[in-house]
From TrEMBL:
<keyword id="KW-0472">Membrane</keyword>
<dbReference type="InterPro" id="IPR017850">
    <property type="entry name" value="Alkaline_phosphatase_core_sf"/>
</dbReference>
<keyword id="KW-0378">Hydrolase</keyword>
<feature type="signal peptide">
    <location>
        <begin position="1"/>
        <end position="21"/>
    </location>
</feature>
<protein>
    <submittedName>
        <fullName>Steryl-sulfatase-like</fullName>
    </submittedName>
</protein>
<keyword id="KW-0812">Transmembrane</keyword>
<feature type="transmembrane region" description="Helical">
    <location>
        <begin position="212"/>
        <end position="234"/>
    </location>
</feature>
<keyword id="KW-0106">Calcium</keyword>
<dbReference type="InterPro" id="IPR050738">
    <property type="entry name" value="Sulfatase"/>
</dbReference>
<dbReference type="Pfam" id="PF14707">
    <property type="entry name" value="Sulfatase_C"/>
</dbReference>
<comment type="similarity">
    <text>Belongs to the sulfatase family.</text>
</comment>
<keyword id="KW-0479">Metal-binding</keyword>
<feature type="domain" description="Sulfatase N-terminal">
    <location>
        <begin position="27"/>
        <end position="410"/>
    </location>
</feature>
<keyword id="KW-1133">Transmembrane helix</keyword>
<keyword id="KW-0732">Signal</keyword>
<dbReference type="InterPro" id="IPR024607">
    <property type="entry name" value="Sulfatase_CS"/>
</dbReference>
<feature type="transmembrane region" description="Helical">
    <location>
        <begin position="177"/>
        <end position="200"/>
    </location>
</feature>
Length: 579
């Protein structure tokens, strides 16, 4: 019986070699990442009211991961981790303040060129590489055209998409994300300060002249005016589409944008059908402001959000049909996921819920509760991966990096820590357990929790060092700040940490105690030792998501699309409308 794992490993290796021999070339890779999609939004993960037949088919014909997690619960750090196979704290893509993502295209922060992405690694092995859709890990460093953080600087030969995320401001009639800044303003402290100042003036302890009052009112007026200008110009400055290094639409029209990106993706597959390729299709949907093309509006039972999910599913079907038509299906590893959990606090200006569904899991985006980091994980490769297999072992979106490099024949970097693990042995059944004994979910740059899957045990312990303060208190979201934050006074610190066993309590509804769990203190002791070991592996790096790096810098502002390029977009839209 001891030789059984070796037999499985040998059979898996033979199966993979046979697939490569039949194709006569290295395997292709297609990665599809949906923005803010909840694990409970898909039929293959239990949703019975939202139709996703193409994604469900991938799960039926491939492997479904049920404990697949994002390395971070926000867009920018999660995508940095996915691209590099490393926790974002290692690449400087974890914020030390409130804001954990880039809001402006003219920010100077971004994924450092010192980092190795899977695109950069496979490009050296002869692969043609492309990212289509959302990027959101930076653009420029010192001037508006250096493109130091652009996809072309990170191993992608071709780029068609947006540097930023798709915000409310990019969708006419959906309001502005900037209006949620009021959740970060310390109104209470300001009010106390003004009242105290007035009382001291009345009692004669200080003198506040009319000139000071007038100057203060002028200052408030200037700040309000500048804010209104920022809101007005935000779409023009940040909502644009690039093809390679050039802006081709500014601001862009979201109508039929998914169809356009799907067309770009299928054309890339057609152009590169005779050589190995890697395509990263990064959907703008279903991030708010929500949009759906006319063909999909009103088709779901879940409003505009459901319509957008159905359009994503259609796009997945188009990619699959193209692979089949080009006879590439059997030589292509396809990966379908989300960047993190759903944004539960998203409510439209009309009061409609625009966030996704976490299923049975607690909370959503920006938190490390399971609803914020447990994401869909579907891998599809006919003839190499077993059909209909379900794996209930801890895995991470960082695992794609070493998996791809090993399959492409690239060497895993030895000069840095790689936190992901090759998934292929687990997917093919060569091993039954994940290599992730410990996982370290961060909230920005703060270690928020630890996940421990002990050897020879079915337990999956999860300890929280702090948790966000929900508002309202009986909810599982942070409606007062539009997204949960990682810093005081918006969190509660736990000492001892909150402890759960996810194998018995996946909904994280009942924290354990010394009275209910005999191993309580011994588990926490092991976890603390793992934290110390993990901390020793961290090296100081420049912080890319600091306030100084994410603030808008006029000299970095990219501009502008030409009239001829806008005309081409209008022609493309007209073709879709006529269909």
């Amino acid at each position: 019986m001891k030789s059984l794992p070796w037999i499985r490993w040998t059979l898996g290796l033979l199966l993979l070699c046979t697939a490569d021999a039949d194709s006569g070339r290295k395997p292709n890779f297609v990665f599809m990442m949906v923005d803010d999609l909840g694990i409970g939004d898909l039929g293959c993960y239990g949703n019975t009211t939202l139709r996703t037949p193409n994604i469900d088919r991938l799960a039926l014909e491939g492997v479904k991961l049920t404990q697949h997690t994002a390395a971070a619960p926000l867009c920018t750090p999660s995508r940095a981790a996915f691209l590099t196979g490393r926790y974002p704290i290692r690449s400087g893509m974890a914020a030390h303040g409130r804001m954990g993502v880039f809001l402006f295209s003219a920010s100077s922060g971004g994924l450092s060129q010192e980092e190795i992405t899977f695109a950069k690694a496979v490009k050296e092995q002869g692969y043609s590489t492309a990212v289509i859709g959302k990027w959101h890990v930076g653009l420029n460093c010192e001037d508006s055209a250096d493109h130091c953080h652009h996809p072309n600087s990170h191993g992608f030969d071709y780029f068609y998409g947006t540097i930023m995320t798709h915000l409310r401001d990019c969708q006419p009639g959906h309001g502005s994300v900037l209006y949620f800044v009021h959740g970060y303003i310390p109104y209470k402290a300001l009010s106390i300060g003004l009242v105290s100042l007035a009382l001291l003036h009345i009692k004669g302890m200080i003198t506040v002249t009319r000139r000071v009052v007038f100057g203060f009112l002028v200052l408030v007026g200037v700040v309000v005016s500048l804010f209104d200008v920022l809101v007005y110009t935000f779409p023009n400055l940040n909502c644009f589409v690039m093809r390679g290094p050039e802006i081709v639409e500014q601001p862009y029209t979201s109508e039929n944008l998914t169809q356009r990106m799907t067309s770009e993706a299928t054309e890339f597959l057609e152009r590169n059908s005779e050589r190995p390729f890697l395509l990263f299709f990064s959907f703008l949907q279903v991030h708010t402001g929500l949009f759906a093309s006319p063909l999909f509006r009103g088709r779901s039972q879940h409003g505009l959000y459901g319509d957008a999910v159905m359009e994503v599913d259609w796009s997945v079907g188009q990619i699959m049909q193209t692979l089949e038509r080009l006879n590439l299906k059997e030589n292509t590893l396809l990966y379908m996921t989300s960047d993190q959990g759903p944004h539960l606090e998203e409510i439209s200006i009309n009061g409609e819920m625009h966030g996704g569904y976490s299923g049975i899991y607690k909370a959503g985006k920006s938190t490390n509760w399971e609803g914020g980091i447990r994401i869909p994980g579907i891998l599809h490769w006919p003839g190499v991966l077993p059909a209909g297999k379900v794996i209930d072992e801890p895995t991470s979106n960082m695992d794609i990096f070493p998996t791809v490099l090993n399959l492409a024949g690239a060497s895993i970097p030895s000069d840095r820590v790689i936190d992901g693990h090759d998934l292929l042995p687990l997917l093919q059944g060569q091993v039954e357990r994940s290599e992730h004994e410990f996982m370290f979910p961060y909230c920005n740059a703060q270690l928020n929790a630890v996940r421990w899957h002990p050897p020879n045990s079915n337990a999956i312990w999860k300890a929280f060092f702090f948790t966000p303060d929900f508002y309202p208190e009986n909810s599982s979201a942070c409606f007062h700040t539009h997204i949960c934050l990682c810093i005081k006074p918006y969190v509660t610190v736990h000492d001892p940490p909150l402890l759960y066993d996810l194998s018995k309590d996946p909904t994280e509804s009942t924290p354990l105690s010394p009275d209910t769990e005999p191993q309580f203190y011994s588990v926490l002791e092991v976890i603390r030792a793992a934290v110390s070991h993990h901390a020793e592996s961290l090296k100081p790096v420049p912080v890319q998501v600091s306030p100084l790096q994410i603030v808008w810098k006029p000299w970095l502002q990219p501009c502008c699309s030409s009239l001829s390029q806008k005309g081409k977009t209008k022609i493309f839209l007209a073709k879709f409308v006529s269909r």
